[in-house]
DNA sequence: AGTACATCGTTAGTGGGGCTAACGCAACAG
DNA sequence: CTGTTGCGTTAGCCCCACTAACGATGTACT
């Protein structure tokens, strides 16, 4: 629910956090997710990359050239934000944007050789970061942890609108 | 790492998400945390409350009156944001702010009777929301899940600056 | 007593992420 | 040929985590 980073200003004496807060799964998730985000952003930042870059490159690598809209669906990045991400990737020559001759509404996005290289570097970094993130867990526990997360996620994404039939 | 909500505009055919993405714990955490946040915000919103309200009230309930700075440390809310939160809570008569006679820099924050009532309602709502959030898990699994989260969190909060001694 | 430093509450502002709205254009279905 | 749907793009909103700086007060040191 909250961060635990210590502001330069606001020194961390260890004042106790109330029990109800400490136990809430929502709060734990929020804090760890924040920590994970920090780790990832910082790590990728060292390669002048952001997590969206990874998502897009990974998607292109795995499924080949795609339209922006499809990429958007695969990665979960909003169409509106995809524009900027692709601009950044194009600047760095990791992708190419070309109009689709078969459907002139579309852009076809292709990963370049340098893009593939970059992706490999990112993958390496992410592996390391995950090692840090999950450091206290044995590899069996890690496996089980991500499985649990996946189950939760599945439950909540299938659980779409599901409007009462009435 | 990304959201999965489907924009009204951008319909969700089920386009597949690349494997590397689906497996990354950081992404799973991010998505579930987002979902959890949505659930919580929406649920508390129904009582015209926000998660910070809960954090502050719970803290006051458990430790009694405190200064803003201490509350800030307990809850993880930044001193700068605490101001606004306390304003909202004071508007609703859930807390009272009074200058500390013993240290004129401080405000002493006290929870009111109505604040306690409100806290009880919030607790109830959060319990329900967590039921929904963790629905696919058995109670043993929930227990273990939160324990794992706690372990992870502990690891990363103890792991403070810890600068190389060199 | 005087000076340096820390802490307190507060205001302002930054940057990113998630998300909505609306637009012009192209494709397609009737 | 008309209405609908999908596309890429621009703009903007709100929330959250976080930083910076300020004036006022308290504490410690000499």
TrEMBL record, chains A, B:
Residues 22-154 form the HTH marR-type domain. Pfam families: MarR_2. Signal peptide: none annotated. InterPro entries: HTH_MarR-typ, MarR/SlyA-like, WH-like_DNA-bd_sf, WH_DNA-bd_sf. Residues 1-21 are annotated as: Disordered. SUPFAM superfamilies: Winged helix' DNA-binding domain (SSF46785). This is HTH marR-type domain-containing protein. The lineage of its organism: Bacteria, Bacillati, Actinomycetota, Actinomycetes, Kitasatosporales.
